[in-house]
Write a structure and sequence with these properties.
By secondary structure, the chain is an alpha+beta fold. It contains four helices and three strands, in the order ααβββαα.
Length: 127
Amino acid sequence: MSFETEARVAELMKKIERKVEMAAQNPEAVVYGRFEGTSSSGVVTAWVDAVGRVERVSLAAGSAQEGSEQFLADQFMDAISRAKAAAENLGMEEGAQSEPPAHPAPAPTPENWQSEEPWDEGGSFLR
């Protein structure tokens, strides 16, 4: 094995040991944990499980405008990265709650939107 390979394996082993220690301290976070990340602008919030799989993404009202596609894509990636970083630490960074966060409120259903006009002044159905 080359020196780089050995160094990489040693680094990964330390990371695994650290994760095992964190999981032993907070097993509920591994099983039930939902970790939240919000983009730097606050427009997008993402929730991931302990493995880092995206479970839900929320977009702030009024943030989807024509021409803002790249901005929104960047904000989605930022929020997901932040949520995955929280999952990586099993929510044990400073200021984090020791209990796993609850699931976010369920998404609106078509029944909730029946009383509202789906179009805004700009002709977009996105809010």
